[in-house]
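Repro case for the chain-ordering regression, as requested:
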Amino acid sequence: MTGAATGRAPRLPLRTRIAMLLRLLAIQGSWNYEILMGNGIGFCVEPALRLLPEGVHSDRFKSALARQSQYFNAHPYLASIAVGALARAELDGEAPERIERFRTALAGPLGSVGDRLIWAGWLPFCSLAALVALGLGTGPVATVVFFLVLYNVGHLALRLWGLNTGWRLGLQVASALGNPVLRRGPTELVRAAGFAAGLALPLALGRIIGPGRIFIGGVLVAVVVGAILIVRLEGRLQGWRLATVLLAVFALFSVVR
Amino acid sequence: MLGDLLPIALLGGLLGLDVVSFPQAMISRPLVAATLAGALFGEPAMGLLCGAVLELFALETLPFGASRYPEWGSAAVVGGAIFVDQRGSIAGAMTMAVLSALLTAWVGGWTMVKLRQQNARWARAWREPIAAGARGSVIRLQLYGLTADLLRGALLAAASYALFAPIAHVAVRSWAIDGRLSRAVVVGVAAAVAGAAAWKIFHSTPGARWLFLGGLGIGLLLLGVVR
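-- result from build under test --
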C-alpha cells in the first residue's frame, strides 16, 4: 500500500468494497447521543483494515479500528466519503494525529451538505413526485415502485460515489466537496421540490377526496389558510402535532354527536 | 385480529428498522409502508390512499441530524392496516386510521430516543474493548443496536395495532359525519401541514416560490378546478 507515495489509489479488492458498501447501509445501526455514528464508521472501515499487512491481531489494526470508532457525525449517505478516505489514510500509513484532525474537519461539511442535498432536497422531491404520480392516477404498485426506484437511484449512487471518491482521494477528499452536484444540487433540488409541491397538492387532494370541483376548491382554500397558520406557528408548534390534536377532537365530535 | 398481529409486527419491525438503522432506502416512507400494509391484507390501493395522507404529514418532519422526529415506518403500517380493516364502512375509517398512525408515530419518536439512550449505555459498557480496537466489540455494538431497533419497531407496531384497531372499529360504527366530508377534513389538514412544510423548505430559495405557483397552476388545470 504505497498510494500516498505514488499519488495513485491502490486497488481496493471487490470483495472488500462490497463488504464496505453493505456495511454503509447499516452505518447508523448503533447511533447514540454520545458517539453518534462513531462506532458505525469503525464498523464500515473494518473490512478495509483487514488488508493491513500486519493482520487483524496486530497493534496497528487495533489502534486504527479504535481511532475510527470514536465520536463522528455526518449525513449517513455522505459518510461514505469519510469511510473511503479514512480507510485509505489508515492503509497508507498516515500519521494518527493527521488522521484524527482530518476526521474532525470532515464531519461538519459532510453533515450540512448531506442534510441540504438529501433531507431538504432529494427526499421531498421524490416524495412529492410520487404524490404527483398518484394524483395522475397511477396504481399502488406503480406509485411505490416509481418512488423507490427514483429515490434509491440517487441514494445508492451517492453512497457508491462517496466510497469510491473517498478511497481514490484519501486525505485530499475535501476537493470532492466542490463537486457541482454537492454545491448546486441542493438549490436546484429545492426548486424542483417547490414545483412538485405545487403540482402534487391539488392532484393528490383530488385523487383522495374524489370528484367535485366546488368541494375540492373549498378544501383547497381551507388548506391555504391552514398552511399560513402553521407557517405562522413555526418554532412554537409543529403542524403534525397540531393536526393530531385537531383530528382527535374531530373524531370525538363525530362519534358522540 | 390476533392472527394479524404477527405479520403487522414483522412488517412494522422491518420498516421501523429502515427509518434510521438499515438500510434507509425509504421503504419506511408512509406512501410505501401503508401500501405494503394494505397489500398484506389484500388491499394495496386502500393502503396507498392512507399512505398518501400520511406522506403529506411526513413531509414536515425530515430526519435532520440528531433532531427528534416521529417514526413513520411502523406508524404507517398500523395506519394502513387499520384503514383496510374498515373497508366496509368508509365514513370515519380514514380519520381513525390516520389518527392511529399519527399517535403511533408520536410514540415511535419517543421509542427511538429510548433506543438511542440504550445504544449509548451499550457503548459506555464496551468503551474499553472498543478503545482497545477489539473488532468483536465494534461489530457487537452495531448488531445489538440493529436488533434492538428491529424489536422496537415490531413491538410498537403490534402494540399500537392491538390498541387502536378495536377503538377504530367502535368509532367507525358510531360515526355520524358524512364519509366524504370526513375524508376531506383529514386530507385538508394533511395538505395544510405539507403546504407549510414545503414553504419552509423553499421560501428562501430564489425562484422556488414562482415554481411552486407554476406547479400549483398546472396542478389545478389538470384537476379541472380552474378553466
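Ordering looks correct now. The first helix of chain A runs from residue 3 to 6.
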